[in-house]
Prior knowledge:
single chain; about 325 residues; alpha/beta; TIM Barrel; eight-stranded parallel sheet; 8 strands; about 40% helix
Amino acid sequence: xxxxxxxxxxxxxxxxxxxxxxxxxxxxxxxxxxxxxxxxxxxxxxxxxxxxxxxxxxxxxxxxxxxxxxxxxxxxxxxxxxxxxxxxxxxxxxxxxxxxxxxxxxxxxxxxxxxxxxxxxxxxxxxxxxxxxxxxxxxxxxxxxxxxxxxxxxxxxxxxxxxxxxxxxxxxxxxxxxxxxxxxxxxxxxxxxxxxxxxxxxxxxxxxxxxxxxxxxxxxxxxxxxxxxxxxxxxxxxxxxxxxxxxxxxxxxxxxxxxxxxxxxxxxxxxxxxxxxxxxxxxxxxxxxxxxxxxxxxxxxxxxxxxxxxxxxxxxxxxxxx
Length: 322
């Protein structure tokens, strides 16, 4: 049953969740292979800073992504931290079986709405990915596992390989993922093509279809519109967003991309608007400095770290009555 309640005109949510995806989306996009101990320190410090959802890696062959070869070990460590929802990305049934065995709390199955991107990235058509989700759901249920399945629809606003992606096709695939057994669905602007008007329109339609099973917005800051797009999603009631510490990450099919929305910048924007996140921004900035040291030579992004928090933070905000 759809119990998603859109906000009143002009109202914004009172709270939001920032899911850290730097350990997966960020690290897989750079050359540096970060030591497992540093990754543990990152997870530990992010948790201490108030983050309660962290994507710790991906179950893909180590020969393809050596940066993520220690994902099972990181899941085991992260699950020792109280109140932390531990997620991983899985591209197929084999990866899902590894996630189930590791007892991850949630596994994200990526689907690209762009047929060209899907074939380049996953070597499957979008509908073949939907069929794989059905197999993953069957395997999860047969194992008696409680690992949630999130179907993530990427290139939802366009693609560098295909160009335009039709919104109706995006929503068809999102519904197909739900019908195939996904517990949650999310939308991603993989290559940074979206603007706030596009986000508001598509996310409004998506939440109307998926209701409470709509889980997350994933935005890249490729053209400087990441935070503006988050705001547009907030306006239609979305309250969970992916972000990467230091704005690292990106897509190999979007050359020159600056990466994901920065965790610390997003936390600042939300906090400044009076939207509770439970995040200690000073602690996030301190962690960013440590990560920058670990990733010496890599390019990090974001802006808050340059100037720090203003003296007026947290600023008071008058809410429009619901």
